[in-house]
Amino acid sequence: MEQIHRQTGQRCAARHQLSVGLATSPSEILDAQRLRYRVFAGEMGANLPTRTPGVDRDIYDPFCEHLVVRDESSGDIVGTYRILAPTPARQIGYYSENEFDLTRLQHLRPRLVEIGRSCVHPDYRTGATIALLWAGLAQYMSDNAYDYLMGCASISMADGGHAAASLYNRLAADHLGPQEYRVFPRCPLPLAALQQDRTAETPPLIKGYLRAGAWICGEPAWDPDFNTADLPILMPMARVTARYARHYLGNTE
Fold it and tell me: In terms of Cα–Cα distance, which of 61, 106, 57, 108 is closest to 88?
């Protein structure tokens, strides 16, 4: 992944002065955690279990690698993803297990990478920043020969959950994964008590996952700390569409 940082940075610096790679020092990880706090607590009002003011840090962070996008002109971390690989996940478990019963994915664990805590600085929420994060993830999966990418994609519950229920109802019709990969929420969003026919825009991150070939592999869970409905997403790398593979892996070779 150090190679990703150098090569992608060389191409993007001239255009955007952005580079992507795994954090290689405690200070870079701390900057990513501060960005997470700014976005999740400052913008979204999340209740984060942190002991350090202004820093989003939990028990999973020491076991994770941290993908970061850096503005080379200022040195600021402006985007990040947290990556939990299969080997450290055997020690700490997957974060998603707090929200879902993953029993049916048990056989995938040696090849299953979990991603989460995705966020971008508000001044850098452009296609270029997102593309770099996706390129970094794609190269990470390719370099390590992992076959499955898993995460929770959040939907705002500012309206009480009606939009989230409506969105799940619409997306599940075309993107629900096979039964053998189905997971089950520990704290389910009460779909039957919510309106499921409202017009709801698909968040860009979820739209990107689904276009790339990901499955929704169960009903959404309610995350009370973030006050979001979380969709379980599973992306078999073999399903990544040819267009996405060329775009993201082609940008980092």
Answer: 61
Number of Cβ within 10 Å of residue 188's Cβ equals: 16
Structure tokens, 11: 């191409």
* Sequence-ordered list of residues with C-beta below 8 angstroms from that of 181, at least 6 positions apart, any chain: 104, 105, 215, 217, 234
Going by their DSSP bridges, the two strands 148-156 and 112-120 should be labelled as parallel
Q: How far apart are CA 31 and CA 248, in angstroms?
A: 25
CA atoms within 13 A on the CB side of 12: 28
Q: In what helix (H) or strand (E) does residue 229 lie, and over which residues does it extend?
A: strand 228-236
Q: Single out the residue of 78, 35, 89 nearest to residue 57, CA to CA.
A: 35
Cα–Cα distance between 172 and 157 in angstroms, integer?
18
Q: Are 12 and 19 in contact (CB under 8 A)?
A: yes
Tell me how many degrees the CA angle 93-106-63 measures, rounded to the nearest 5: 20
Q: CA–CA distance from 65 to each of 23, 95, 113, 130 (Å)? A: 7, 14, 11, 18
CB 53 within 8 A of CB 33: no
Q: Structure pTM?
A: 0.88
Q: Could you report the average pLDDT of every consecutive run of 10 residues in the chain (253 residues)?
A: 37 63 97 96 87 93 97 94 98 97 97 96 90 91 95 93 96 95 97 94 88 94 92 93 60 37
> Structure tokens of 73?
């002109």
